[in-house]
Design brief:
heterodimer; A: alpha+beta; Aldehyde Oxidoreductase, domain 3; 4-stranded mixed beta sheet; 3 helices; B: alpha+beta; Ubiquitin-like (UB roll); 5-stranded mixed beta sheet; 26% strand
């Protein structure tokens, strides 16, 4: 399985990422999920979220999740970008794409990686400004 | 006898602890070094830290603990030079 992982303060360029998609002839599904910063946190308006990570461990834990996904489903590729630093409301903080032969495994693997990320990958966020 | 003498004179194990997210604020610093008796477990270190940083003790049920880049349980036996990280539940995405 091909894997690409980027954890960076750079703005996520969804157009460039979409243009970079490659699928071999046996692949029939590409599932892409975006996490976008909401303009409210606990019903209060916010301007942004500040993301912080323990980056080496976050990269390692993402790779362990990719290992698990690769064992459970037949996947051709996983590409994931997580933004750090201040992310304004309305902008993308997470971008993930899973390519597989069929939609079932593509959706399942994408859901698995995002759900598990929220359990084990050491990234935290804080509302700006603080309530 | 030699083994007993060696055990008696075993140097303390030094570990570095890193705090992340709001645990840094609760501890009042980002990292600290602790000395422990040889054979000490992660649980022993945590008890020491919670005594030293009482504000962290209130979070001990939800705290996540890693050694190096992997999560470890309280029974993990600490070795010289281990890098321990202590942080609140993660919130990526």
């Amino acid at each position: 399985m091909r894997r690409e992982l980027t954890i960076s303060e750079e703005r996520i360029d969804e157009q460039a990422l979409s243009q970079g998609r490659t699928m071999s002839r046996g692949m029939g599904a590409a599932v892409c999920f975006l996490g976008v910063v909401r303009g409210t946190e606990e019903e209060r308006p916010i301007l942004a979220l500040d993301y912080e990570a323990f980056k080496p461990m976050a990269e390692h834990q993402f790779q362990l999740l990719f290992d698990q996904a690769e064992k459970r489903w037949l996947l051709e590729s996983v590409r994931l970008v997580h933004r750090l630093g201040r992310v304004p409301a309305g902008e993308t903080s997470l971008w993930i794409e899973v390519v597989a032969p069929h939609r079932e495994e593509a959706f399942a693997a994408c859901q698995f990686i995002v759900s598990e990320m929220k359990r084990v990958v050491p990234i935290w966020k804080k509302a700006f400004p603080l309530a | 006898m030699t083994g007993l003498i060696a055990a008696c004179y075993s140097p303390a194990v030094q570990v570095r602890i890193h705090f992340y997210s709001y645990f840094k604020d609760l501890a009042g610093l980002a990292e600290v070094t602790e000395s422990l008796a040889p054979g000490s477990r992660l649980e022993d270190l945590l008890q020491k830290l919670y005594l030293r940083f009482p504000k962290l003790a209130a979070m001990k049920k939800s705290a996540l603990v890693a050694v190096g880049l992997d999560y470890q349980g309280g029974d993990y036996v600490l070795a010289e030079g281990d890098e321990v990280s202590l942080f609140p539940p993660v919130q990526g995405g």
